[in-house]
Amino acid sequence: MTRPVLLPAALLAAALALSACNGDASSSASSDAAAPLTGASSAAPSTVPSAATTSGAPASAKQTPSAGAAPSADAPSASARSAAPALPTSRPAARTAGSPSLATRAGRYTYDAKGTVTAGGAPHDASGTATLTVDEPVGDTQSTVLEGDQGRTETDTQLKSTGRYVTRLLLTTPAFSKEFRPVPAALLLPEPATVGRSWSWSGTSTDGKTRVTATSRVLRSETVTVGGTSVPTRVVETRLVLRGDVVYDGTTTTDVATGQRLPVREHGTGKGTISGIPFSTDTSSTLRSLDPS
């Protein structure tokens, strides 16, 4: 079944949770004394999908509230309006002094999605699939493309010893196109991702029309079975709030495989409006296999 045109707002929420970034981002992080990740470094969920976030992870995910207040509906800053570039036709040049060891294994990953998107009071089946294509890292930058039934999300992530940071996200949907470019780059997932650690960021899209605030925290450790293989994960909860031409408030919980640096499972709920029409989402997604095609 074809997903309704309002689903892109949920896709945006999923992509930002898994691949969070923004136009004039400011970010902060705090941590407790919990034990750090063991084994390989952890990576971003934004995917997807974030979501989580991914990116990314499937197009149907996103967000159970965590700490962090919703942003005010103030107008975008002058710097955000003046810095709104045209949509790029090529990927940014590689950066230096990064940590390519934090990269996700390149290839194509498939997620199964299910759930419901309610638009204008009418529920729609959100079942389907999403694919996440991960490029080989270039310098300290790794790019991904998330594609679902109703949209495409491109994300550029910078790999540092302190974590993974998003430098660009471009979302293309039947309803709208949005680009976010954080300056400085927005923290996606810290290294180490200790249980109890939290971080946040806020900013404006390059067209100056959408204000975003996201707050994330590491809730706990879990073990998830993916394609018959048990993998240790960190569970990351992200609350995303959008204000402006797109209004959204939702929360996504994402299991991020610590060894593979990949979102493997997520569930999200949220509600908002687009073009004056109210919608709500309750969706989940699961990675089919840890081995890319």
Any key phrases for this structure?
293 residues, mainly beta, 15-stranded antiparallel beta sheet, 2 helices, 15 strands, 48% strand
Terminal residue distance: 25 Å
- Strand-and-helix sequence, N→C? HEHEEEEEEEEEEEEEE
| Structure classification | mainly beta
Low-confidence stretches: 1-10, 16-98
Oligomer: single chain
Mean pLDDT: 73
What is the C-alpha radius of gyration, as a whole number of Å? 17 Å
Number of domains: 1
Question: Outline, from the CA principal axes?
Answer: globular
Helix percent reads under 10%
Strand content: over 45%
- Report on the biggest sheet: 15 strands, antiparallel
Number of strands: 15
Number of helices: 2
Overview of the structural elements:
The protein is mainly beta and 293 residues long. It has one domain. The chain has 2 helices and 15 strands. It has a 15-stranded antiparallel beta sheet that branches. The protein is globular. The two termini are 25 Å apart. The model is unreliable at 1-10 and 16-98 (pLDDT under 50).
